[in-house]
Amino acid sequence: MSLVGSYVALVKPLTVALPIFALAFLRFAIAALVLLPWTRRGTGEPPVSGSEARALFLQSFFGNFLFSVCMLWGVSLTSATAAGIVLGSLPVVVALLSWLLLAEVCSRRLLLAAASAALCIGLLQTASGRPGAASVSLLGTLLVLGAVVCEALYVVIGKRMVATREPLRISAWINLWGLALSAPFGVWQLLHLDWSALSPSIWPLLIFYAVVSSFVATWLWMSGLQRVSASYAGVFTIALPVSATAIGIGILGESAGWRHAVALLLAALAIWLATRPAGPPRPGFDQAR
Q: Per-residue pLDDT for 190 more than 70?
């Protein structure tokens, strides 16, 4: 999540130079070359079942394709502040979907951590709001909420997949689905692109974006999901806006205020609540309980 936040902050020039679907297609195409060794099924590895194939498609469709469409469209219709507040619900939505779809137990401490993470993200995005922002649109807010649900589904589906497949194998297959989903519009936009107008500095940035987003960050996330519950992992989505804000302040020279300081304290509180070891049972409690 920290890596995702860093490349979100650093690849702004790519969104200016390239159309959205063309950028997505190039990202998946470059990553497909990097992930090629993990694309083919290994010796002795069971073939992909029908349920696994559906899960891989849904994870890529929600987490790669539909998330981007909902987010970009939603932010264009509503204010950045309103969108940020809606995004703050991501840890809570992950916890709820983990409870509904995976039957995971959500402890009170984990719910408090998710609530603290939600406040952190909302406060960071509120701090990023500027006077004169676009008016709040109900459709825009609903689209951003749809993006939150898409990202939460990506986390929950990924938890099911890591039970049977290696993280790098999942990363490679998800990326191929992303390439296929973005190809129709992406290729069309590339055919109409003025390549001579692109700066040479775009290409190293594009390679960084592709490798980190589709390979490194996905692999780390899936590896983590092998060891922790989806609702527990959802708390750490706070690292995305925190790292993006840190890059903005430290590298891009954006101003910081008291909201940023409070948001970072909330982030620390969420991580502490989620990761501190459970204490011994209190006297009088049934040990089996």
A: yes
